[in-house]
Design brief:
This protein has 779 residues and is of the alpha+beta class. The protein is built from eight helices and 42 strands. The strands form twelve sheets. A five-stranded mixed sheet has the order 3-36-37-38-39, with no helix packed on it. It has a four-stranded antiparallel sheet with strand order 4-42-41-40, with no helix packed on it. A four-stranded antiparallel sheet has the order 5-6-7-8, with no helix packed on it. The radius of gyration is 29 Å and the shape is globular.
């Protein structure tokens, strides 16, 4: 009976592998799966015939599979396992008495002898030993240490922010995500304990869009934390206890056309012209998902009606087209001097008639428009006259801006003109400013310089992250005001922030061609000498938990168009790698301006995009909700685009892990010191497995003078602390929901240092939603 069942099983496996393997060979892929399928079929037939040679045939498969697997991926356990796991398990089954006895022989005396196990047993044992050895190696780990020496003893942090406070999204206008506090350090961080937990009450709703996310980094001013929630509530908490002081609901409503429902932070401002104790001397500015900016009294959360239109600034003013739900500000404006400078998020790939990506400066007290910089009309920055409109669909800035008040410049990370994957008809200004960092004069909005990181962007490679400013000390002792711009494609551009010129060199390299007939591609694309850009994908990088889904991913790999980074969009379907989540995203990187080192979390997850002719796009459904994944309609354009992560049939990435790292960089040399896998599959699988594969993440790190970096972000629900010097993990705390936000730190009146993390989940990556704000300190 065992022989018959085993034969049927082997026959089914052989037919599946053989059929899929033949398809793969026709597509130009590996012959192994076809070979393996044939060997399974032959083994099945021989088992049915009760032939002992079946074990010899299967032994040949084990040997061939082992040689093939090691040749493709070396001693990488997480790639060897799917290639050989099923084969070895079935080999062990063939070695059991239930199989070997029927394959044996009967002696003249009538005794029954099992067939010799060693022809199969030896290859199986060797394969198990190879697997065991591979578990002791980590071919993806780069070990090393960052320099410990303090290069600049008293560097500028940007702004006048006390050491124990956190006044802007990246702590200061420089966006360094660095705190000069050292009470919590690499020695004692292991003792960190949760001391308070607050729930906002703003939870994900059944009618929310898929991209509902909780990405806020709280501010800390005086004894109070200020934060916002995905549905645009502003909240003030006691910084020591986490108890609520006040809550304000912007009543921004629900709209299924919004692509995102999130708030990354609020903006704080102290008005020196108002007497202490008067209303609105301290203000909090709340951006909303229905395109408003609301001024609130930081003391009690009441609206400051002297600002704009009874406390509300309407950001849709000046837009030629104003479809509801297509434009909003997910990131806080920057406050500098007497100005609020703000960009806005425009829905990707919804329509050719969307709002402008204009950057505007408003009087921080009155809300009066002071200047506007529209990349579609970049030379005219005087306030737009009434009755005129900004350029439709010009590249927008949805992330966080940085400011150097001493140089008089604000630094803008710019996105692309929508539709992202269609480049025909773009103006010369769009081609110049798309996917770049621009520096504008704080007082006039006039362009100071522009540095572009993707030419003729067809991949949604926005510059997604707040530029980080610091003063670099060069080997000769000279100091250069520097800017670090992390990009989705994995490059870190280090520029002189006075001029935009490279400090760490970058160059142009040839880029793939082959755009659709109506479009074109840029012949070259820039790449930095400091890059986390991955090697191009190959068929051998395809992954799965078994031979079957790995085979399916290999077939899909060959069905898509892919010639490496910047393969243009196509009707066939194109692999985009690095993908739309980017290697770096809005969480940016953390920079220690004293040691002049960087800590980041590069992520690697391939996406796919496929152009869909407008005639093939179905009418919009009434219950259709906004999303960057799935079908993006591009109303008014000749093509829509179907896009999403490159996943296998089981819903896991088709590319092999690791998908996420923590990394350290010496900015003075431009060298990567270490890269370590970050995160486990604890929350990616039905069982809470602790396997440290290195998982995708979206969020950002924070670093302290104590030599510790804090990071949530990964798709397992943990907040972790790392030794900045080596990248070693020092501590972790389980979060009640996804931690797709950036942590922050501060001290209170009792001189205790706290770390605060928001845990609310991220709709795009599927982490658990929640409404938690959690404080940690040393006992």
């Amino acid at each position: 009976m065992a022989i018959a069942i085993t034969s049927i099983l082997f026959l089914l496996i052989g037919l599946a592998l053989g059929g899929g393997g033949l398809w793969l060979v026709i597509l130009g892929g590996s012959i192994f799966y076809l070979f393996a399928g044939l060997m399974f079929i032959i083994t099945a037939v021989l088992l049915l015939m009760r032939k002992a040679v079946a074990l010899w045939v299967y032994a040949a498969l084990v040997v061939a599979a082992l040689i093939w697997a090691v040749w493709e991926v070396g001693f990488d356990w997480w790639q060897l396992g799917p290639r050989g796991g099923l084969i070895i398990l079935l080999g062990l089954w063939l070695l059991t008495p239930w199989i070997r006895r029927p394959l044996g022989f009967k002696s003249p005396t009538g005794a029954i002898y099992s067939t010799n196990p060693w022809p199969l047993g030896v290859p199986v044992i060797i394969a198990i030993l190879v697997a065991g050895y591979s578990m002791t190696t980590d071919p993806h780990d780069l070990s090393g240490d960052l320099p410990k020496d303090v290069v600049a003893a008293a560097p500028p942090f940007g702004g006048d922010v006390p050491d124990g406070e956190w006044h802007q999204y990246g702590r200061t206008p420089f966006g360094q995500r660095y705190s000069p506090l050292d009470q919590i350090n690499a020695t004692n961080v292991k003792d960190l304990k949760e001391v308070w937990r607050y729930q906002t009450g703003d939870v994900k709703r059944p009618d929310d869009v898929g991209e509902t996310t909780y990405q806020v980094t709280p501010l800390k001013v005086g004894d109070t934390l200020y934060l916002c929630t995905p549905h645009n509530w502003a909240i003030a908490l006691d910084a020591k206890t986490g108890k609520e002081k006040w809550k304000f609901d912007a009543n921004s409503g629900m709209n299924p056309d919004r692509q995102h429902q999130t708030c990354r932070g609020v903006t704080y401002y102290h008005d020196t012209a108002v007497a202490a104790g008067q209303p609105c001397v301290d203000r909090v500015y709340l951006p909303t998902s229905d395109a408003r900016l609301i001024a609130l009294d930081a003391a009690d959360g009441k609206v400051c009606e002297s600002f704009a239109d009874k406390g509300t600034l309407h950001l849709e003013t000046g837009m030629k087209y104003n479809p509801a739900g297509y434009y909003y500000s997910t990131s806080p404006p920057v406050a500098v001097g007497s100005k609020l400078i703000i960009g806005g998020a425009v829905n990707d790939n919804y329509s050719t008639q969307e709002q402008s990506g204009v950057i505007r400066a408003f009087d921080i007290n009155t809300g009066a428009l002071l200047w506007n910089w529209d990349s579609g009309n970049p030379d005219v920055t005087t306030p737009l006259p009434e009755g005129q409109t900004y350029t439709t669909n010009s590249p927008n800035s949805w992330s966080v801006l940085s400011v150097d008040e001493g140089l008089g410049m604000v630094y803008i990370p710019l996105g692309n003109q929508v539709p992202d994957q269609l480049g025909m008809g773009r103006s010369a200004n769009v081609e110049k400013f798309s996917s770049s960092v621009v520096a504008l004069d704080i007082n006039s909005g006039q362009l100071k310089w522009v540095q572009q990181f993707v030419h003729h962007d067809l991949w949604d490679m926005d510059v997604p992250a707040q530029p980080v400013l610091f003063d670099m000390t060069k080997p000769d002792g000279s100091v250069v005001p520097a800017l670090v711009a992390p990009t989705k494609q994995g490059d870190l551009y280090v520029l002189d922030r006075r001029t935009g010129e490279a400090i760490i060199p970058f160059k142009e390299i040839p880029a793939p061609g082959g755009a659709i007939p109506e479009d074109k591609t840029a012949p070259t694309q820039p790449i930095s000498d400091l890059t986390f850009s991955p090697d191009p994908l190959q068929e051998k990088n395809m992954w799965g938990v078994s031979l079957f889904d790995q085979l399916a991913c290999r077939i899909e790999f060959h069905r898509y168009k892919y010639e490496g980074r910047y393969t243009p969009p196509s009707l066939q379907g194109t692999i985009v790698y690095p993908g739309n989540f980017g290697t770096f995203n809005w969480g940016s990187v953390a920079v220690d301006p004293e040691r002049q080192i960087l800590f980041g979390m590069p992520t690697y997850l391939a996406f796919t995009s496929r152009l869909v002719p407008a005639a093939d796009i179905p009418p919009k459904g009434q219950d259709e909700k906004g999303s960057e994944q799935g079908l993006n309609r591009n109303d008014g354009a000749p093509y829509g685009v179907f896009m999403g992560p490159f996943l296998g049939p089981l819903g896991i990435p088709c590319q092999a892990p690791p998908w996420g790292y923590v990394a350290g960089v010496d900015l003075r040399t431009g060298k990567i010191a270490y890269m370590h896998k970050n995160g486990t599959v604890h929350d990616m699988t039905p069982l809470p497995l602790p396997f440290k594969l290195g998982v995708p993440g979206i969020g950002g790190p924070m670093m302290t003078k104590g030599g510790v970096a804090f990071l949530g972000a990964a798709v397992d629900n943990y907040l972790r602390a790392y030794d900045v010097t080596s990248g070693a993990q020092l501590w972790q705390a389980r979060l009640p929901a996804g931690g797709q936000a950036t942590p922050m730190t501060y001290t209170t009146s009792d001189n205790k240092q706290y770390v605060v993390m928001v845990a609310g989940g991220h709709g795009s990556v599927g982490t658990k939603p929640g409404d938690y704000v959690i404080g940690y300190t040393l006992p």
